[in-house]
Amino acid sequence: MAKPNEAALRRQLNAIKREQFLWMLDVTKCAPQQAIMQLGTAFQNFFAGRAKYPRFHKKGRNDSFALDNGQFALDGSRIRLPHLGWVRIRETLRFTGKIVSATISRTADRWFVAVVVDTDQTLTRPAENQDKSALRGGLVVVADRWYPSTKTCSQCDHKIDSLPLSLRHWVCPACGVRHDRDLNAAINLANYAASSAVSACGEEGSGAGRKVRVKPTSVKQELSAKLAA
Q: How many other C-beta atoms can be found within 10 angstroms of the C-beta atom of residue 102?
């Protein structure tokens, strides 16, 4: 039997999705494409002896998918998503620069978008962001400066000991998923902010056990240029 790889997995899914997974035709192709790419990388790392056999991703935990800058558009307080069209968002983007990617995630019954922006500008201090956003009457979640957003696998929560700044991609030794450093950090920060915001509002969420400072400002937009935590 041939070893599973990305191309074979993609062909297999395309052959059965119209019969067994008809709902996939109603959602953006970006979500399954990303999953197939990650699964292919996971099998490649497994057969190379770099990781364990791939495990199923648990539905309802860290649900998210990523879009590159050619698959979405921002216009003030709205974002255009594949298949959905224009969707209202709570805040406008506060940073100027090249938009790199966006990560759509869900916590409980709330949806969040994390946007990665490449900018050379000096970012305002968290206290300034809190003061500016206080007028909007929402929540801002301030992650601890040592929160390992880049060193934690956004798929299985495994944390590696070190990650040099020069290393832009890495493979999780626990689940075998290959990560883009900035994109992985964006997903973790989005999940961190989302779960903490839900907990702060007294709703059921996954961030109850984390230490987090919650202040009366807008939902976190720690979407700086290069998330090099």
A: 24
Q: What's the pTM value of the predicted model, to 2 decimals?
A: 0.50
Confidence of residue 152 (pLDDT cuts 50, 70, 90): very high
Strand-strand pairing, 140-142 and 169-171? unpaired
Contact 37, 180 (CB under 8 A): no
Q: Domain for residue 224, yes or no?
A: no
Closest-CA residue to 77 (of 99, 58, 93): 93
Residue 180, strand partner residues: 169
| Predicted confidence (pLDDT) at residue 226 exceeds the cutoff of 50 | no
Strands, E assignment, 63-144 = 63-68, 73-74, 78-81, 85-88, 98-107, 110-118, 140-142
Q: CA neighbours within 13 Å on the CB side: how many for 123? A: 18
Please report whether residue 227 resides in a domain. Answer: no
Amino acid at 158: H
Number of domains in the chain: 1
Range of 50's domain?
6-215
Put the strands of the sheet holding 110-118 in their side by side order: 63-68, 98-107, 110-118
